[in-house]
Structure formats: structure tokens, C-alpha cells
Design goal:
Blueprint (H helix, E strand, L loop, with lengths): L63 E4 L4 E4 L13 E5 L4 E3 L2 E4 L5 E10 L5 E12 L9 E7 L1 H4 L2 H12 L5 E4 L17 E2 L5 H6 L14 E3 L5 E3 L1 H8 L7 E5 L2 H4 L7 H22 L4 E5 L8 H8 L5 H19 L6 E3 L21 H16 L3
Parallel strand pairs: 1-7, 8-9, 8-10, 8-13, 13-14, 14-15
Antiparallel strand pairs: 2-5, 3-6, 4-5, 6-7, 11-12
Helix pairs in contact: 2-9
Length: about 400
């Protein structure tokens, strides 16, 4: 099967319409706040957040972010792999919050940083994995006095702009009227409009599409907006030209990227390594180009969320091509490699959405990869909490 055919888009239920590209681009307002001065939160380098010898692939981020007044959840079952996870004993040790039925919850009334460790053991008490993280709570109003521009790049998990819409509403609700999102469409190809969220995201896309996709036609999703046509008929990667067109030539304060699902969704144990390495290669190529054009932007890399825990959803959507157990392995292994590649790189920051997503309640019964409205809202909460930790 060709790489172009690898997609986690659901047959017969596309997330994108056949809208043509709208050429109108708003003059994004800069806001009345102070100049952006945020810096990505630096995780504790000494933390052993990934148990590389773990029998269950125990994988934690170096920081799990929350904000005051909003309940933060960590679903312990999302952090490791086991054919029957109910057979494992899982414990979290941290001075705040309460844990019940493998869900840790904490609603903070003030900012703070708290150590946390998680242990997975078998029924006989033998340790299968141990890892550490830090709970980072920020004030819900952090950064409110500053102008913040953000670009969200992704696949179908961002393409409908549900997460972008929730993030924009949350930021405004908590007092930051100087936060805005720009891109080439407002979700599924809908036209841009001042005051609305915008994204640069397309259903079924992989890292490679932003580097290579340049097809004939006028549909909004037939060409990567990061490519520019050349006189010889070829195309050239040019993120600077994209910013010229869609953001008055200005680099965004923050760039958030969620890609990788389509790279590895269909991979089996036989070919997973090949798909992983191809994804890593394309990812590095795109990130290095973006970084060269936007050296001062904070770039956040969003971890893949856990997908629907219902086996039936995979049968309904993929008819055996993608199965739950294999996808769970692919997803967490991809997350682990993303963090190993970038968590200690000062040019990038990890946005860990996977610890807090409910693999049942945050998904509809009939969709294995794409969440429901509550799931998208929880994506937005995780991104917002990461963003607030900069200030």
C-alpha cells in the first residue's frame, strides 16, 4: 500500500467538505495588551518520566499542566500498555488531589508545582514500571495582559476547529481578549472571519503533506499552504510566504502542532518501525523549516490522544484494518518517541493531552479516532493550561 493511502479518515464520513479556498484574509487585530513575553515551561531535566525498561511502556510527560479553578484529571490507564490493564495495580503518589478508580483529580485554588510518581505492578506486587512527573498549576488569568497570536497546525483532530473554537472561548472567558488564532480557514474549509478561530489543519494529513502535497485544483485542501509554486512547475517550502499572506508577515507568538495519527494509525507490528521513522524524518524537516522562519515563536508539540476504548468503533470505522489493541500500542509508542526526541530540546515544548482524555466518555460510540464535543473541549483545556504555564 502506498504511503498516500495510509489515512485514519473514516470511509464515508469525511471530516472535510469540498469547499474551495476562500481568498479573503482578515487583518488580524493585534489587541490592546502588552507585547508577548511568554517562554515555554522548562521541565525538570532530572525527572525520570519515561521508564525505558518498563514491561508496560510506562510513559509520562515531564510536566502535566493545570489551571486554578478547573479540575485537572490524570487517567492512569492512559499511561501504560497491557493487554488487560485491569490486571495491573497502579498507584500515583503526589501531595495533592485524590485518586479513585484510577482517575486522579485535583482542583487547585492557587498556582503551584508538585512532584508526582506513578508505579505499575502486577497482581503479585512485582513492579512493572515506575516513572515521575510534575504537576504544574498556573493562575487561570496568567498572560491576560499580553497580546498572544497562535497558529494551530494539524490533521482532522484540529481540522474542524472544535478545539480552536473552545480554546478561543476559554481564553476570552478567563479574561484574555487579546488572544487570537489565525490560519487559512475556520474549520473544514469555512471562510475566515474577524473574531473567529482559524486553523491550518486538514483531515487525513500527515507531516509529509505539509511538505509535499501540491495537487491541481481549487479545493481548500488540495495544496499545502506552506508550498509556493515555482516557474518550472515545481513547488518550494516557504513558511515565510505563508506568514506574508495569512498574518501580515509576522511570526506567531505560539505555534501548536498535532500531527502523527495518520502516519501510524494503520501500521502493524511488522511495519510500525518503518512508518515511525518516516514520520520522524518528515517531522524534523518541517519543524526545522518553521523554526528557521520563526526563531522566536514558542512551538508546542501536542501528544496523540488515546483513542476510543470501544472495540466496536474500530470494526464499524475500519472493518479490521485498524484494531484497538494495535492502535493503542502505536499511539503510546509514538507519544513516547516524540518526547524522547523533543522533551529536552529547548526549541520545542511538549503539550501532553493524553493523560487527561477519557477513552470512553470523550468519544462517541461510533467513532474510534475523533472525539465528541467534550473530548475536543478537553483538548482545548490541556492546551490552555500549557499556554498559561509560560507566564
Amino acid at each position: 500500500m502506498k504511503s498516500d493511502e495510509k489515512s485514519c479518515e473514516i470511509p464515508g464520513r469525511p471530516t472535510d467538505s469540498n469547499l474551495k479556498l476562500d481568498t479573503f484574509v482578515p487583518n488580524w487585530g493585534g489587541g490592546n495588551g502588552k507585547r508577548f513575553s511568554g517562554k515555554a515551561f522548562a521541565g525538570n531535566a532530572a525527572l525520570k518520566n519515561i521508564d525505558t525498561a518498563s514491561a508496560v511502556n510506562l510513559t509520562l510527560p515531564k510536566a502535566i499542566y493545570g489551571i486554578t479553578g478547573v479540575e485537572l484529571q490524570i487517567r492512569l490507564g492512559n499511561l501504560f500498555l497491557l493487554h488487560n490493564r485491569s490486571q495491573a495495580e497502579v498507584k500515583i503518589n503526589t501531595p495533592v488531589g485524590l485518586c479513585e478508580n484510577r482517575v486522579w483529580r485535583y482542583t487547585a485554588d492557587k498556582p503551584g508545582r508538585y512532584p508526582a510518581s506513578i508505579e505499575v505492578a502486577d497482581a503479585a506486587g512485582r513492579q512493572l514500571g515506575y516513572a515521575e512527573t510534575e504537576i504544574v498549576i498556573s493562575d487561570a488569568s496568567a498572560g491576560n495582559e499580553q497580546n498572544i497570536s497562535m497558529l494551530m497546525i494539524g490533521d482532522s483532530l484540529f481540522a474542524g476547529a472544535q478545539t480552536a473554537d473552545s480554546l478561543l472561548k476559554n481564553m476570552h472567558l478567563r479574561g484574555n481578549e487579546n488572544f487570537y488564532l489565525f490560519g487559512s480557514h475556520s474549520g473544514r474549509g469555512n471562510p475566515l472571519a474577524s473574531g473567529r478561530a482559524a486553523v491550518e489543519a486538514y483531515g487525513g494529513w500527515r507531516w509529509a503533506h505539509f511538505l509535499e502535497k501540491y495537487e491541481d485544483g481549487e479545493l481548500y485542501n488540495c495544496k499545502s499552504k506552506f508550498l509556493q509554486p515555482q516557474t518550472d512547475g515545481s513547488s518550494k517550502l516557504d513558511f515565510n510566504a505563508y506568514l506574508d499572506k495569512y498574518h501580515q508577515g509576522k511570526a506567531p507568538d505560539v505555534i501548536v502542532i498535532l500531527l502523527g495519527c495518520n502516519d501510524i494509525a494503520h501500521a502493524s507490528m511488522d511495519d510500525f518501525s518503518r512508518w515511525m521513522e518516516e514520520s520522524r524524518c518528515k517531522r524534523r524537516e518541517l519543524l526545522e523549516h518553521i523554526r528557521s522562519v520563526a526563531p522566536e515563536s514558542v512551538i508546542g508539540l501536542v501528544t496523540l490522544p488515546p483513542a476510543n476504548a470501544r472495540h466496536k468503533a474500530y470494526l464499524d470505522n475500519y472493518h479490521g484494518v485498524v484494531v484497538h489493541q494495535q492502535y493503542a500500542y502505536n499511539q503510546l509508542t509514538y507519544v513516547k518517541q516524540l518526547m524522547l526526541d523533543f522533551q529536552d530540546d529547548p526549541d520545542y515544548s511538549i503539550i501532553p493531552i493524553y493523560p487527561g482524555i477519557d477513552p470512553v466518555a470523550d468519544y462517541p460510540e461510533d467513532n474510534s479516532i475523533h472525539p465528541n464535543d467534550q473530548g475536543y473541549f478537553n483538548f482545548a483545556l490541556a492546551i490552555e493550561a500549557w499556554l498559561k504555564a509560560m507566564f
